[in-house]
Amino acid sequence: MPFARACLQEVHLISKPLDEIKEIPIQEVARRLGLEVKGQLAHCFSHKPDRNPSLRLNLNKNQFHCYVCRGVGGSVIDLIMQVLGLDFKEAISFLQEGRERYSSERVQERVKAAVSIDPERKSELLQAFMNAAPVGEAGIQYLASRGIRKEIIEKMKVGYLSPDQYLSAYRRFRDRYGLEILKAAGLTHFYIFAKQQLPFLLFPYYVGGRIRSIQGRCLLTKEEAVTQRVKRFAMTERAAYFYHHDLIAESPVLFICEGEIDTLTILQLGFPAIGSPGTWGFDEHWLDLFAGKTVVLCLDPDPAGEKAAAWVGEELHQRNSLCLKLHLPAGCDINEYIRKGGYIGSAQSGTTQP
């Protein structure tokens, strides 16, 4: 059955109780899942440590959103899917079966029962999945529209999948490895794009020559995603490393960018760049990696980026690092700035202002 028709049938089957399910109070769902809720905030389940609760519970919209983790957010259904690693139909079933399923003991049992795989096998599975997702002409054309050249795309091994391509790969991998293994590897997380009929790019996070996680990014702009109420990012797991992480040990000077496309932008200019998975995707334990180095922060010029830059700058200063900041025009990220002809000076001389 074609994917679009299958989706229509699935929606028809669950459409009657779906609105009621989405209205189950998100605070209640979060507490029953064992999250530490404090008013309209909670400690995020996706990254640790989360000393200051970064998971916001929007009671008016009955949705949640993490300020740190890209792709962590959505409805009560998304919360079940992301905490317990369930797919959409399983999450609906879980919520339909009644509140007795929410007991902390039952939830913990489910979490413990989840299949886990060792890092080496997981890396092999992620690599096999990337091999099934060549970037192709469509991915190259999209990145070219963002000013990214083919040689850097190929060097960084970026992938691309249409919804149909993802579903085809998903079925092959499910039949070969089993659904539970795919869930443990995080490869079911990209279903949100297929469900919305969105093609997406895949950015592998390599460390020591092995893939540790994959970031998926649909081709919608931020404004389009807000209008269509869809998420732009999905990751196999929260990144415990930077994008292009191995460069840290090799270079005394590092440009820290916000996300993968900004990182590709700086790399093709010839600067040593790594990518943080989101403005606040910067873990405290990463800071010591930059002790004694020169760091140039290339974060977006918005309140979140300014706040992150101030915190990182202060922390790096305490570690004897020279921390510079690239000052960008308001509303313009580094990719857009460069595409408009912007200039980046020498980090060694400290001339980082446009």
Short description:
The protein has 354 residues and is an alpha+beta fold. Helices cover 43% and strands 16% of the residues.
What does this molecule look like?
The protein is α+β, with helices and mostly antiparallel strands. It has 3 domains: 3-113, Zinc finger, CHC2-typedomain (DNA Primase, Chain A); 119-235, DNA primase DNAg catalytic core, N-terminal domain, CATH 3.90.980; 247-339, Dna Topoisomerase Vi A Subunit, Chain: A, domain 2 (3-Layer(aba) Sandwich), CATH 3.40.1360. It contains 16 helices and 13 strands. It has helices at 3-22, 26-32, 76-84, 88-96, 104-113, 119-131, 136-145, 150-155, 163-177, 179-185, 191-195, 222-228, 247-250, 260-267, 303-317, 334-339; strands spanning 37-38, 41-42, 55-58, 63-66, 73-74, 159-161, 200-207, 210-218, 233-235, 253-258, 273-276, 294-298, 322-325. The protein has a 5-stranded antiparallel β-sheet, with helices on one face. A 4-stranded antiparallel β-sheet has the order 6-7-8-9. The model is unreliable at 1-16 and 347-354 (pLDDT under 50).
